[in-house]
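Run DUF218 domain-containing protein through structure prediction, thanks.
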Amino acid sequence: GHVILGLCTLQMACSERYCGRVQWYDVEEGYGFIACVAVHQVFRRDVHLKRQAVGKLGLCRGSEVSFLLKSNLAGEPEAHDVQDATGSTPPTSLAGDRLALNPYATASGAIILLGLRLGPDGKAEPPLLRRAVKAAQLQEATGLPVILSGADVAAAGVPEAEIMKKLLVEHGVPPQQLILDDHAMTTVENFLYGIAIARSLGAQILHVVTSRWHMPRALYLLQAVLVFQGLSEALQVQACPSPCPPDPNHLEEEERLLLSRSTRHLARYGIAPLSQASLEQTVSEIRCLASAGT
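Sure, done. The structure for DUF218 domain-containing protein is below.
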């Protein structure tokens, strides 16, 4: 029923514009998702967003956009001819013509690099190495300070933040641009402590660096923390996922953790989970990543 209805909807949608909000969009990778209620009711998933549909439009999480709806090769909804639906300039467009050269340019921002459990020898695993490379590239492009967030979750004798500092310095990031948070044991704590640091720096945009497969759950938890702290409007979020090879196991684990642990980890700090619709959207994003093979 959904497949037939979906195909009919897409065929009828060629000239009709839909409206939605950007869930996340990585400018360098040219990939993200748009949340659209009308599309989600039919497909139970968000809309794929790719660079060729965006052009020079500046996007960040929460940007209101309109788009034409078409089907990709997998028969899933994909946005085309994406346009600003608000008439206002998104936060990441404040740099004007510089946007094409430096899409992350901002007058006041910070980068947060989320840690990952170290190996038993205290060394970074490949996903964390890729996150570090992404953060170093982003720091070089923006000049923004980097918050390194991660405690010694693996009990390896060294906190993740220290290992990340070493990696970023090796990639040319000035040590004075690195701020260590070696207390965060969970993703919720990454953001509780990281937001406090970012706010102390006067940041208005927080660039979140983590693995692509971790990004949907991370943004769900971040939004819950921002709502709890009353900062949803004061602190804009830009997702900057590091690339990762296809691994269905990672995505299955992310969905399991989202459904089984997120509420408990939030409740530990008196933070309410987001709505059921937000939870379902996040699950949909994780499944979209799995179907896209990223």
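The chain has ten helices and ten strands.
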